[in-house]
Amino acid sequence: MKNDTIVDRLYHEFQDLVSYLDQNGQISFCNTANENFSKTLLLATASYFESRITEHLLAFVREVAKENQRVVKLVENKAIRRQYHTLFNWEATNANQFYGLFGETFKTFMTNEIKHDIKLEESVKAFLEIGRNRNSLVHQDFGTFSLGKTTDEIYQLYQKALYFVESLPDKLRSVSIS
Fold first, then answer.
1. Is residue 153 in some structural domain?
2. Host domain of residue 153
3. How far apart are CA 61 and CA 24, in angstroms?
């Protein structure tokens, strides 16, 4: 996977800023930047994943609906737009709620995939942790909220979670619905 998403660019720009502050003896500003940027990176990551998953779902619907715009618009307007955060149980350690939305066959398929792919299992957990932390951040007082994770830790979660997000289109197409 190429590391050129907006999340990657933000992270690397932040690293440059921290390096500059450190080289110029600005430890206090460095600590403040890290504390605040971890929250910003978390929101950017969650937003990026929402955008990617939404795009994946709409592409899948277009494909199976054979470009029938009425079906695509129905799903987009009633199942996806402003509904993303209801697709997942953010407090869970698995995405079974999401998989179940596609039927029991897909849910069983994904459960088996995860049993045989530790990287996928860890990726799903990282993805859900990002969503859970994002919800805590935006539903509590953003300015005073203590995330408890560094920018590097958020970026590591992002890198792990990316595998799930980017493998989703292939997983959706791997199961035929009877």
1. yes
2. 6-51+85-173
3. 52
